[in-house]
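User: I'm designing a mutation panel for Serpentine receptor class r-10 and want to avoid disrupting the core. Could you give me a predicted structure to guide residue selection? Please restate the sequence first so the numbering is unambiguous.

Assistant: Good idea. Sequence first, for numbering, then the predicted structure tokens:
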Amino acid sequence: MKIDDIVFLNSSAVFAIAIIFLLICLILKKSPQSLGSYKYLMIYIDLFELAYAFLYFLEKPKLLTKESAFFLIVNWKESLFPKFVVCVLDLLFVGCFGFSIAILALHFIYRFFSITNNPHLKSFDSWKIVLWFMIPALNGLAFMCTGGILMSADPQTDRFLNENYQEISENTTSLEDLYYVGPLFWPKHDNSTTEQYFSWKAAKACIIAMGVITISSSIMLYFGVKGYRMMSKLIATAGVSYKFKTIQKQLFIALLFQTAIPVFLMHLPATAIYVTIFLGNSKEIIGEIISLTIALYPALNPIPTLFVVKNYRKAIIDAFCYFFNIAGCGQKVVPMTITATASTRNSNILDRS
């Protein structure tokens, strides 16, 4: 990995950790009462993104996309952790992808329940919220198991990596130093350098992954469309308070932005990778690009909430104003006070005369 890329990844992770921590503080201290149990869902999402940023900062797995292969690779000799921990961390990256798309679906479900005052909304105010929170975790676990079993290394993927991974060909590392997972759709026959066959192992893994993604995306689309329609009716209703309408609209707009960011930075690029490797025509540049875009996800995703929700935006603006007023006190505030005092004295003299 290039030095510039490492600097970018580290900077992105540090920024993400800082801004997520800020958002969590604002949710705990500045949330309007009308937010209700939604703040717990927001904190849950932020804690996931915080863990994701820490994970990326510590390991920074490399993505290899070439021909019909897509591998997530970590070098355990370059890691701070033992080999077993490095393997688990690599699988956690796979799980994070499944977790992120499921938590978006849960987000849309909650917003729809909140807008329509659905009876199921009460389940978020009781211990049943744990059951809701388990859905993304189980989705992430399903991705981890798929990666660890159906996308695990085998002789065909080892051969492909030996022939195509630059660090191995340049003798800067060896296959024994690496742990990787990922599909290889068209491996070569053992006794051939050109003849290929279709890997049903890779196909099964991708069917499971794309199936889970399709289900989560369908849930988002269904509840997103219904939520938008109900939001439009809600805004036109006279009997609902202006404050309630405003906060619901703000949260819905923030949700749309929070959906667009991971979709464009993670899910669409990943889908493009699956299509290109199935066709046997993927390029290494695709993996290099997505390794940078997925690093931006936890850094950018909290920003819409910070600026769309009025309470959080006002708290940030007030903090900036306070800071700059304090910083400028010695130079601006005192001279203005002296000038004002002098002007007052001159005015009094003129009045007396």
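For picking mutation sites, this is relevant: The CA atoms of residues 183 and 202 lie 5 Å apart. The mean pLDDT is 81.
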